[in-house]
Design goal:
Length: about 400
Amino acid sequence: MKITKIETLVCYARMRNWIFVKVVTDQPGLIGWGEATLEWHTRAVVGAIEDISPLLIGEDPTRIEHLWQMMFRQHFWHGNGIVRGTAISGIDIALWDILGKSHNVPCHKLWGGPVRDFVRLYSHLGGGKMEDFYEATPTDAERFAALALQTVDQGFTAFKAMAVPSTMPLEGLTPIRYAEKCVAAMRDAVGDEIDIMVDCHARPTPRMGLLFAKALEPFGLFWLEEPCWPETMEDIALIQRAVKTPIATGERLIGIHAFRDLLEKRAASVIQPDITHCGGLSEARRIASLADAYRVTLAPHNPQGPVSTAAALELGFATPSYVICESVHSDVPWRDDVVTEGFSVKKQGRIVFPNGRPGLGIEINEAEVRKHPFQQEVLQRSFYKDGSVGDW
């Protein structure tokens, strides 16, 4: 079996352009689907895939580790950057899809079989508007509470919200009280049996991140995510040691070496590699094994398209340290028209069961994808109240 072609299909999905990777073989009908979605860098990723593809044409697609090493190590520049790491990830995911299909088994069977009966999903509520973040109004708190109740009514037993506002490098109590009011409203609305995560989106400085972590500790969060920049792992570690709340991070880290440094510093209780960026399923499995050695929980970052979700679920079925999967289910109304998914979701509890379809268990409707061609995403800008540049 040989790889004959590697193509990209770009599908505009409102917040982002999904980048689907199609790896074609010389076996009739045997293709693999991957995903390499990277917001605001669509053309760069498509170009990177085109640059890497000549390494793989004519090669055996089942030699996945060999091909991964070629993609990562050839051309002198290692695949540590986000653009090339995402390109490698998309191709790698498609190769695993091919291997599963060629053996007529789901990918998790290739990795030793299922270690659990189902994977739990959590939803993302989003966050308040930037211009509202300095007005700790009851309206925002009520809106978060209403969204929380709506999500629970949809069957979710866990959700995440960006209830921590964007702040200047150092501020007083106003943003702290805003976050407290919003989280308190959500907790009061859904009770203690629903798991709540709060995503800081790495907006705060380390000191502000610690203040938010301390303030939100009484609400029993499932985790507090990215309380400061991932570049300052020592500070994330200090925050983790200062509170009982599990700290989560890792969505912007590329490759096992970055996660090794994170784990060695004991900086997080939950690591969140993004399978479409960190190096694909091959590298995600290595990261998961490392997390298991440190007894740290795995919960992949997964706000992208349907192939990313299928890959994250297959990883979850076969990974002991895996605890929960992020779910985006209402980003575009035609999501189900683009993909045929092989897994089934039980609404009550939003838990996913495998059904044994080979590979990732999904197929892409290329005609439907072409109805939604590339559009430039709206570049997000964030400024502090004094006009200086902040983190989005």
